[in-house]
Design goal:
about 230 residues; alpha/beta; Rossmann fold; seven-stranded mixed beta sheet; about 20% strand; globular; binds guanosine-5'-triphosphate; binds magnesium ion; metal-binding; magnesium
Length: about 230
């Protein structure tokens, strides 16, 4: 299957549930990919862009807005995307931070259905302490990592390349399996590369295409135009 075929399935992504804690996650079956990153890194925007839906995952100008763990199903309940709460937001009380760190570690290390981590970082910022912490847990959990350098539109080509190289070096030093790409929700850049990774990790080519009809793809396009906004997460 091509990334175009994967995108058709990814456009059918639906909101499943919001959980305040990992204890309330959906059943640990099938395949799950987690989207993680510092607060304001562009996680929700990336999910909205790849699913071609305007407000599937909320995105906002207020950092730390996504406090719940949001689960989405990608054309089948056995293929899920998870929007993890952003970390590193200074205004969150220390006790909350520690609670979340413990939860995240447990989730990354022991969730059976978790098959990969998409780690997002603003292209203008290098990976910080907690990003590296996430990467160590991913390594402990045997997870491959795909890094998105988000908001790539904020830099010119030369600076984008320099950031890509610098982050690659940081990742190589951590000695874990990774891939990396530029991404821009604003310019819709890097969408096919990300679709190919998700298609592979979520085994989308194995799902039967029973709902992969053009009619549903058209619905997704309509919602993206704002004529049929998806607000399941509100
Ligand atoms: N220029 C530009 N801005 C972006 C891009 N992606 C996201 N943003 C902006 O960055 C801000 C944060 O984006 P979100 O998608 O809400 O980030 P998040 O990681 O989900 O944030 P939290 O849920 O609060 O942790 C918003 O103001 C977005 O409009 C991008 O590709 N380009
Ligand atoms: Mg968010």
């Amino acid at each position: 299957m091509t990334s175009q075929d994967f995108l058709k399935k990814i456009h059918q992504t639906q909101f499943l549930l919001s959980a305040p804690t990992f204890k309330l996650c959906p059943a640990d079956t099938g395949y799950e990919v987690a989207f993680a990153g510092r607060s304001n890194a562009g996680k929700s925007s990336a999910i909205n862009t790849i699913t071609h839906q305007k407000q599937l995952a909320r995105s906002s100008k207020t950092p730390g807005r996504t406090q719940m763990i949001n689960f989405f199903t990608v054309s089948d309940e056995n293929a899920r995307i998870v929007d993890l709460p952003g970390y590193g937001y200074a205004a969150v009380p220390e006790s909350m931070k520690i609670k979340w760190q413990k939860e995240l570690e447990e989730y990354l290390v022991s969730r059976q259905s978790l098959v990969g981590l998409v780690l997002m970082t603003d292209i203008r910022h290098p990976l910080k302490y907690f990003d590296e912490q996430m990467l160590h847990w991913a390594k402990d959990g045997g997870l491959p990592v795909h890094v998105l350098l988000t908001k790539a539109d904020k830099l010119k080509r030369g600076a984008q390349k320099a950031a890509l190289l610098a982050t690659k070096k940081q990742l190589e030093a951590l000695d874990l399996p990774f891939s990396i790409q530029l991404f821009s929700a604003l310019k819709k850049e890097g969408v096919h590369d990300l679709a190919a990774v998700l298609g592979d990790w979520l085994h989308l080519s194995e799902l039967d295409g029973n709902i992969a009809t053009d009619a549903i793809a058209d619905d997704a396009a309509a919602s993206f135009d704002g004529t049929q906004a998806v607000t399941a997460n509100d």
